[in-house]
Every structure is written in C-alpha cells, then in structure tokens.
Amino acid sequence: MAAAAFLRLPSTSFSLPLQSSRPISPRASKSLIFKVNASASVDYSSPSKPTPISTTNSGSWKWKYGGNSVNIHFERLENGGAGADQPRKDILLVPTISDVSTVEEWRGVAEEIVGRGGGGINWSATIVDWPGLGYSDRPKLDYNADVMERFLVDFVTASDSPVASFVADNDYVVFGGGHAATVAVKATRKGSLKPKAIAAVAPTWAGPLPIVFGKDSSMETRYGLLRGTLRAPALGWMMYNVLVSNEKSITSQYKSHVYADPENVTPDIIDSRYALTKRKGARYVPAAFLTGMLDPVGSREEFVQLFAGLEGSVPVLVVSATGAPKRSKAEMEALRGAKGVSKFVEVPGALLPQEEYPKVVAEELYRFLLENFESKA
C-alpha cells in the first residue's frame, strides 16, 4: 500500500530521518468533481447480482519473461442473463500492489458491474494477479516498475493472452488501484496500452518508505540494504516473518489505514491475506515495493504530468478515498482538478475502497462507463 505497506520497521532496526510531505499546489480545470458521503441508509454489504453471472473457472496464463515462465492467475466474469447478446466490452481490473495484493479485492466490484449490464453493452471482466503477488507464481526476479509495466502490457497484447480475443480492437477499459492505476496510465501514455478509458482508484506512486522518508542518495542506499536483506535466503524470511507475515501485523495495518472502518476487518480477510504472505517467494515483490523499486514515477510533479499526458485522448476517472492516510491522500488530492483527469470523485474508504465498499465504488465506476459508452454502444 502506498502510505504504509505491511512492513512496520522497528526504530531499533532501521533508523530513518522523517521528512514532511510537500504542500499541494492548487490547479484549475474543467474536470468534474463529486463527493460521495457514507450514510447509514446506504447498504455497503457485498454487492447484489441483479442478473446471472457466468464465471469461467479461474485460469492460469504463462508469462514469458527473462527466461522464466511465470504462471499468472486470472479470473473471468461474464453476464449470463439479459443483455448477453449485446456488443461486448471488457474491463481489465488490476489489484493494488502490496504484499497482500489479490484478485479478491476487485471481485465484488466486478460482480456488481457485470451483473448489471445496461447501456446497450454486455460488460465482461478480467481480474489478474501481478507476477510475484496474489495467486500468481513468485519467482526471484529483479522486480522494478519497468518489469510490472512490461507484464501488464504483455498480458493485454500477447497473442496467447487470455484476454486477446476481448481486446483485439482495443475495445476495453482498465480499472486499477494504487500503483496499478499509475502503471496503467504510464503504459497508456506511451501507447503501449490503448484502452478506451481508465479509472484510477485511490491512485498512488510512491512506496511506503519513499513517501515518508524521501528518495535522496543516502536513503536509496539504506533502502538497497533493506531490500537485499529481505531477499536473502534465510535472514530474509526471518525478517519478513517478523515484520509482515503474521496475523497481528496484518490486522493492525488493515485496521489502521488499509480499511477506513476497523469493524469491516473480518477474521476471514486476515486469514486469507496471511495465507498469501506464506506462499513461496512471497517476500520478493514486497521488498521491491517497500523500498520504492516499483514506483512508476519519482515525484508528485511527474505523477500529475503523467495524467496530463492523456488530456483529450482517454477519459480518466480518479476515485479518491476520504479516509486514506494523510500522505497518500495528498497525492490523490494533487489530481483534483488536474489536467487529464476527466472526473474526480470521493468515496468512503482508505487504501482499498474497492474491497471495503465494493457497492459504492462499483456505482461510481458504472456511472463513469455509462457516461462514456452508453451513446456509443
């Protein structure tokens, strides 16, 4: 997670000078800005399924990279009810990058949107786990932002990709959370991805340590030492188990800043996420993410300019979370009214609003889809 992943470093083991975050500079724009307030009258439980959903079995795709063949986990959801014969558009949903990243965080949103149909379009969805995270293989690669971007592009464009037939005419949209949103925006600006629209949910760009302690040369040296230690065969597992892979740590982080309402953190969620941290190779991507190696850009200015590069070419929705940690929230707010952001909304939640409040997030995303595609169906 952007402001604080699931690696809590004791002051006795890793000393870092704290730096304050920079102020947000105001920007004028014609972007639409909305705020969605939580209300006792709104049901934020698991999304309903208005029409039948035919879900294909979870699948695995082999990603070829650097001489490795990495099994990538994905899920497909399709509308099996009314509207199934209408023109199809696919939604690619990409989880937030963190040590507990999983397709599960988007499942409720995907079910809600695919189950609705409407707008003269038959929406289908693909949720994919990152290499090294979720239920995908976790080989010991030298993970960095370029590797993750390369994967996302390959997953969409490879001829043997499980979504190849759905995106053949670039008739798809991308929903991404956290760093995933920024990676998708970056690839789109380069022309490597060509979605019809992008929704960035609680978008971030800086890893947990860089966003707090900065990225000067002295800090980069310390991050490198920590990263190397976490990747080491024996000591790495020991440190990872102490800092990350235990129920107490995961529960604490979820209740403090991953979810906005601690009451929404259930034992089932903790058990599921804890199991993810015990998978073989689980520490490699978190070691890179924690220390900034997966950051798509190097500053807030670059972050804002990245979105600005899509002005007039791709509709972009930014979904900010009202309860996000202070530093992560500041980065989201930097996109309010920014060039290239077609629409800015706020929803309840913290770093995973799509998982904590799937119905609310799905409503905003569905409205965005109708606004941009209903008349073009």
Automatic annotation (TrEMBL):
InterPro entries xref list: AB_hydrolase_fold
Top-rank taxon, per record: Eukaryota
A GO molecular-function descriptor: hydrolase activity
Protein name: AB hydrolase-1 domain-containing protein
